[in-house]
């Protein structure tokens, strides 16, 4: 699990960075753009070695944790889904992962691991189109 929280459910703590041309005295980080419980990455240890990413975090009881302002909805199959307040974004480079690759299209990942087009703003209580 990845996020900015230092609580025990978080395996990898990620923090905002300061621009290379500023030192710590000049920089002002007002509010983090990284969710406390940003996402969970699940990788299979046997073939076909798939990896899945799920937005949101899981608390110590292994329940999904979303902020009150996060977008939430019920899918046609009756399952609840949602997006983190700040969003979990992924981009697959065009041409694969090579020196010649070009940036691809950014997409947003939902709690259930579905892929959506981007919202207008990260904090909006809306969702993009299912890709």
From TrEMBL:
KW Ligase (keyword) present: yes
Keywords, in A-Z order: Ligase
PANTHER family reported in the protein's UniProt record: E3 UBIQUITIN-PROTEIN LIGASE PELLINO HOMOLOG 2, E3 UBIQUITIN-PROTEIN LIGASE PELLINO-RELATED
Organism: Melanocharis versteri (Fan-tailed berrypecker)
An individual GO BP term: protein polyubiquitination
Keyword Ligase: yes
GO molecular function, one term: ligase activity
Gene: Peli2
Organism classification: Eukaryota, Metazoa, Chordata, Craniata, Vertebrata
Official protein name in the record: PELI2 ligase
Residues in Pellino FHA domain copies: 1-131
